[in-house]
Amino acid sequence: MAKAVFYYYGSAGDTFLKNLVYIKGTNKGLVLQLDDQCSYTDLLKELQAKVSDPALEGSAEVQISLGNRYCTEAQIKEITEVTQKGTELQVVGVKSDVLTVAECNQRVLEQQSETYVGIVRSGQVVKADGDLVVVGDVNPNGRIVAGGNIYVLGRLKGIAHAGANGNRDAVIAASWLEATHLQIDDMLEIMTDELTVLSEQPEMECAYLHKSGSIIIDRLQELRFLRPEISTFKGGS
After folding, report:
1. Contact (CB, 8 A) for 194 and 176
2. Which of 4-8, 57-61, 77-81, 204-208 is the least confident region?
3. With bands split at pLDDT 50, 70 and 90, how would you rate the model's confidence at 228?
4. CB neighbours of 170 closer than 8 A, spacing ≥ 6?
5. Which residues pair with 31 in a beta bridge?
6. Which of 19, 68, 70, 184 has the fewest CB neighbours in a 10 Å radius?
7. DSSP 136-189
């Protein structure tokens, strides 16, 4: 069944409007796309006019898209209040394409890699903000945690948690994958006997989070197809 989508441009009496607020309807509610180049005052005036127009009647959930406009928490609150005041609209989310300094710094950290050389022993925890490379074995009850991907050049027989900061595209790769627990983002997989048989030869394997929500184990050679963005090398033959 096709998804119903409608577009709202304002009623015939809206000749004074500057098309600073673009309203799109979907089967999940409304999306309000706000112009990110005009003044905040002009934007607020047009938003108030658009949401109070009689042509926009009925209750609906609303997602607000700010685009490249940076808004303070007070401004986001004001935009939300204007959208909901005197209407049956309910703002359920506000999205911005602008990164805060903290978010930018976090992304930089996650794109970096750290290397640990040695054995991760039972009870020991090794952490990294970005990718983690372990040159050595991870013994049972040893734990490695990374905000990005995990690469073990050795036997992974302990606990590995990749994407710890919410990266669901993170992967866990090992020369020998015999982990007791694998975790990517918030999805935890305990390697029971049933799951172990999925990996008859644990040499050179990787684990990733499938779109179904399950952690899948595959050959390491498949990684370039599963996560092509991991490779940043340019050139070669």
Report:
1. no
2. 4-8
3. confident
4. 146, 148, 149, 150, 162, 163, 184, 185, 209
5. 24, 63
6. 68
7. S-B-TT-EEEESS-EEEEEEE-SEEEE-TTS-TT-EEEEEEE--SEEEETTEEE
Model confidence at 6: pLDDT above 50: no
- Residue 234: what pLDDT? 58
Structure tokens at 45: 């005036």
C-alpha span between 36 and 69 (Å, rounded): 5
Please state whether beta strands 187-190 and 215-219 pair in parallel, antiparallel, or not at all (unpaired): unpaired
Q: Rounded distance, CA 190 to CA 194, Å? A: 10
Token duo for residue 222: 């498949």
Q: What is the pTM of this model?
A: 0.56
- Which residue reads 């990749």 in tokens? 162
Looking at this protein, which amino acid is placed at residue 145? V
